[in-house]
Design a protein that fits this description.
7-stranded mixed sheet, 4-stranded antiparallel sheet, 2 helices
Length: 192
């Protein structure tokens, strides 16, 4: 019995740490990248996928070589061959929803998740205190994760209105000045 249990443990890996990166886009899709370290002598690795629908799935090792896999529900089972790290990349439309100008990314994860906000996005709300913020990459702790962001600045303060009015006034004065200068030059040339 002990030998059978030992043999079984050799084939069932225990994932010690996992890295999850999610890049949301303003079309409602997100790219998910999951990196799973492979224990020594493991022939297979099982990982949980986030979302319910998976498109464009790529499973590779640390050298970019493709690996065989199968999906059962939200679990992916990967034949590791000689891999030390398994990388899973796919797109899904299940994680993001839009309400007006605000996009919200929602998921539940057993591991910390790094969200890489799209270029030009402004963070509106986060469900938990981030573990790390590095540029547009925000790492959140495991559990229920919700992050809201927008493509436009959400500001209607007096400063914003004043700045817009001043910019409009400056352009108007510049345009009128240019027209006046053209008229004066045209009048002088016409009088000659």
């Amino acid at each position: 019995m002990k030998k059978a249990l030992l043999v079984l443990l050799l084939f069932v890996p225990f994932v010690s740490a996992q890295s999850i990166n999610i890049t949301p886009y303003f079309d409602g899709y997100a790219t998910v990248e999951i990196e799973v370290p492979v224990d020594d002598y493991a022939t297979q690795v099982t990982a949980s996928l986030v979302g319910d629908h998976y498109e464009d799935i790529f499973v590779i090792d640390e050298n970019g070589n493709p690996l065989e896999y199968s999906i059962n529900g939200n679990k992916i089972i990967i034949n590791t061959q000689d891999a030390q790290i398994v990388k899973i990349v796919y797109t899904t439309s299940d994680l993001i929803r839009q309400e007006g100008l605000v996009w919200t990314l929602s998921l539940n994860s057993e591991y910390p998740v790094s969200v890489i906000l799209p270029e030009g996005a402004s963070l509106v709300d986060v469900s938990d205190v981030p573990l790390e913020v590095e540029g547009n990459k925000i790492t959140l702790p495991a559990g229920e994760i919700e992050m809201s962001f927008t493509t436009q600045e959400v500001g209607t303060g007096v400063e914003d209105v004043t700045t817009r009015k001043e910019g409009t006034s400056t352009r108007t004065i510049f345009a009128l000045g240019t027209i006046l200068l053209v008229l004066v030059v045209g009048f002088i040339l016409w009088k000659r």
